[in-house]
Write a structure and sequence with these properties.
Shape: elongated
Strand content: 35-45%
Radius of gyration: 22 Å
Oligomer: single chain
Structural class: alpha+beta
Number of strands: 11
Helix content: 10-25%
Number of helices: 3
Distance between the termini: 39 Å
Length: 187
């Protein structure tokens, strides 16, 4: 009888734990931030880009939605014929730094969120460091829209070289920066 009581207690405790525990899900968003190099050169290598995401998942019943990881991939060279990346001499060295703020959809204020400074060891993929923001649902509208403001400072030499070599100093010169975020969500 002694063996049955602890075993049944253990079974009951594990069922209680499973009933009360939450499930953890991961979701990711990938997009491209397009930077007009010409405007950046004219504005002393600083540009500001607004980007809006809309989550198709119902985030209402979630207990939390936290950013786990965010990263920036190698820039995509944009030519008139389309994107070119093979043999491209440009990498994340074109970016001096990049800061991302969350635009609070409820009152329009901005909260600084992420920052990255590519280094020689991260010129193919740079990981953002996460700052002071936990659960992101408080920054979304009821339609699950989430807006960020991206502040990018380009490296002067690399931006001028890109404008000269890739765009032949045309009036419009874009570079695309692939940007990804992975979120952890608890039900």
């Amino acid at each position: 009888m002694r063996k049955i009581i602890p075993l049944s207690f253990l079974c009951a405790a594990s069922m209680f734990h499973l009933a009360c525990s939450s499930e953890t899900h991961y979701d990711s968003i990938s997009t491209v931030v397009t930077v007009d190099v010409t405007k950046a050169v004219e504005a002393d290598q600083k540009v500001k880009v607004h980007h809006r995401f809309q989550f198709d998942r119902d985030l209402g019943p979630l207990q939390s939605m936290d950013l786990v990881e965010a990263w920036l991939d190698t820039p995509t060279v944009m030519l008139q014929e389309g994107s070119v990346t093979d043999g491209d001499p440009f990498n994340l060295g074109i970016i001096r730094d990049m800061g991302i703020s969350i635009v609070d959809q409820n009152n329009g204020t901005k909260v600084f969120w992420l920052y990255v400074t590519p280094t020689p060891s991260t010129l193919d993929k740079a990981r953002f460091s996460e700052l002071n923001v936990g659960d992101l649902r408080g920054f979304m509208t009821s339609a699950m829209k989430f807006e960020i403001e991206v502040n990018i400072t380009l490296d002067t030499y690399q931006a001028m070289r890109y404008w000269r070599d890739i765009c032949q100093m045309e009036e419009k010169c874009n570079v695309q920066l692939p940007f990804s975020m992975q979120f952890k969500m608890d039900d």
